[in-house]
User: Fold this.
Amino acid sequence: MMKKNNLTILDIHNAILNKKTSFLKIAKLYAKNTKKLLKNKTNAIVSDLSADAINNAKNLDKLLKKNELDLNNLLLGSVCSLKDNICLENYKTTGGSIFLKSFIPSYTATVAKLLINDNVLINSKSNMDELGLGGTGTFSGFGVIKNTIYPNRITGGSSSGTVLAVKANAATFGIATDTGDSIRRPCSFMGLYGLKPSYGLVSRYGVLPYSPSLDHVGIVANSIQDIAIVLSSIAKNDIKDHTNINAQNINYYNNLVVQEKIKLGIIKQLKDVWNDCEEKTTFFNLIDKLKNNENVEILEFDLDLNLIKAIAPVYQVISYSEGLSSWNNLNGIIFGNNKIQYKNWKDLMIQTRTDDLSSELKKRFIFGAYSTDEQNFKKYYFKAKEIVNIFKNIFNDFFANIDAFILPGASSVAPLLEDVLNKKATTNEVDDLLEISNFTGMPSITIPYTEINNLAFGINLFANNKEDLKLLNTTLTLENIIKGIK
Amino acid sequence: MIQNFEVIIGIEVHAALNTKTKMFSSSLNSHNSIPNTNVNEIDLGLPGTMPLPNKEAVVKAIWLANELKMQTNHHNICFDRKNYYYLDLPKGFQITQQYNPIATNGYIEILDINNNPKKIEIERFHLEEDTAKQFSENNKTYLDYNRCGAPLIEIVTKPCINSSYEASEYLKQLILILKHLNISDAKLEEGSLRADVNISLRLIGDTNFGTKVEIKNINSVSNVAKAIEFEIQRQAKMILSNIPVSQETRRFDDKNNQTIHLRSKENAVNYRYIYEPNILSIKLSNNDLEAIIAKKPKGLNEIKNELKADNLDNEMINNLLNNFSLFKLFEKVKTHISDCVLVYKWLSVELLGILNKQNLKLENLGEDKIEKIIETLNLLINEEVNGKQTKIIFDQIINSNKSVIEIIKENGMEQIKDEALIENIIREAISQNQEMINSYESRPERTEKYIIGYVMKQTKAQANPNITDKVMKKVLSEILQK
Assistant:
């Protein structure tokens, strides 16, 4: 019998190969769990596409009978939830914003096309912090995400709905985006695997932007193997995305091998900026154990405290500036809420932006406008861009001697929703370190490590730019070593 | 009093590139299509779409840089966003090259009013995209997105132009370059070229610049000159009356030949320029650059020298350079006919005359008609038809779809080349007027003229003149020898 929870892509593949299930049964299972999320008013799902997924599954069953399916395709029949900033032609794509509540794109994102080509069943579009601007799951125009796995806790964000859908077994895996830590932070909170690949490895064409120089399309999944399988499908060249790097068509799953020895880096200042807490103790206990392991070498690296302190403002300046610019198109002329009565075009723009954008978005956009104002752009926007280059150079040098850096997935387990809403729980410099890989474009993965007071706590690894395979292999090796230690 | 002022002018030209597709999308770049037919999701700035820089536009920019003797930033071609809200700008930003223009520091050489060469220095030019076109009807505003995202080059001079004469010479020369290098149609009247003029006055000897006024979107070279002249008078009057000139943007009203206040500089928009994050820097090597330049169409000086070698005089050369369609046709026809002066005359006088009479445009002349024109000119050179007939044939080529042979047949222009037949007519002429033969010794031309006239009359001018001449000489020598 198949497990009831957290099916992996490989579970499904094996069950199909061994004729223990049908595509229809799988699609129905995920449909049921998707409906459960809707029924429980989690706000995790914006569009339930499971009827389509079921139809496609029936078709796959027919093709399977006729021996017309490529059974080497590991993704066959897996079910995916797309973050609702990934466009599907003729399906509503809202980006979690009221402004786009009825926006139906005429194009499909390249990443979705690739999955559909590999016979993945897309059964939902999942909710998110508005247009990706938010890290908590509390900033969607369609309501706060209710965490049914860890009640009263936030899921984290902005890929909140996608992560909840995967954790609640309403999808085998999810495709989401990560501008600061939007995939990895919620994965740390929810005990999932979240990969932000190298910048440009996965096409962003058809994916709603937040801050295009920091935006990455990535994966939420139940295992490192699943991450590798999905990455092999979506890391393809795309002529439509000028920032796309020349992907080598690597099969990350076939090349997933445990290494004899791994070299990990740790930022020395992590200890100084992290206030004492159970999470800190847990993390450094792990580091101590790894130091004593003959298959692991741990090297410490100095990162100027001023640079660590600069991460948050640099992130804010760049992402809010680019975010403001990227969403200047929310002006009601080509698309938007057509019920507005207006005197002239200026009036239309002002009204529609006033009515249909949330206050969090407005706050961030004002910040972006301030940073790029003629009076300020040298002080803020240009300076921030310079600091990004400093990070690129420093880390490129660091990686000469190590395979990957290791960090906590977040400075804490998932905070209480109430604390977040009351602004009692905020992020700190430990959390900010995750953004370094957005600055530099380096691949970064968060995996489950343990539970603290019954709440998930993850660890994060990041490798040098374009070393996605090395990152996955280092992570796989570390995971094996950790199992041994435990 | 105006002689006491020095006029300082800088010109910004926006030229629409004639590339096949738009600057950042695969939509067709065509000015003549039905509104809103050349539009895709990228042009409309729909969420999630991404721009792709147009290679052809980059190539043409490099050609222009080469022709204007500019430095190119080919190692690092990158773009920026100019952010502002306007109804014709769907993305809410224009992709341009604020921080790193593709070309800097060049010049165009003109002749100033005293016929002395003067270099008009060009500070920079950059690639960018156009906005949608708006027009009003019945109190409603309509938008045509065909133009939205069309490629533009913005060319900026240094403030080194000192008169309306120099300004128009510069523009004329620039337009020639843009046309002949196949970069832009460069038509001010049609909007494929737009000129903004910055102008200020200062007392001669003063080292500080006066307050500059910008005149935007002037729609012809002559209006540029008129706008400058008006502005010189206006600013001089203000300065002489101690009224400070205010920094403002004006437009030229071509009905009343004056400039009119549009907005003051204090209300200038804050454009919040940021780097365009969706386009990586394009890095061309020096070899790439050379390969692109190797394919550059002929430059203006090269064209002039070639035309000189074709025996054309200066007036002809200037006429050709100033009429791009005529030049193109000339270039095509001259590959088939070696007598370039003849080609020039028949195209520029006769063909243009016929077309102008009927309000037809040379650029719309079909390939088939051009081939017929070449065929006819070859017949003319071989004296198979004469000049008068050639005019008739040209006229019918334009006004019908008949072949040259058909036209010749229908108009009885087929030549008689039968020597025996011609000889008979010649002998007939001689027999009817023996006196002409007798006076041949003393006045041979008169006799020959009589005979040829007779043959032409009898054959309705269809006798081939060469053959007629040859046969006549033969018959005459026979008769005279007897």
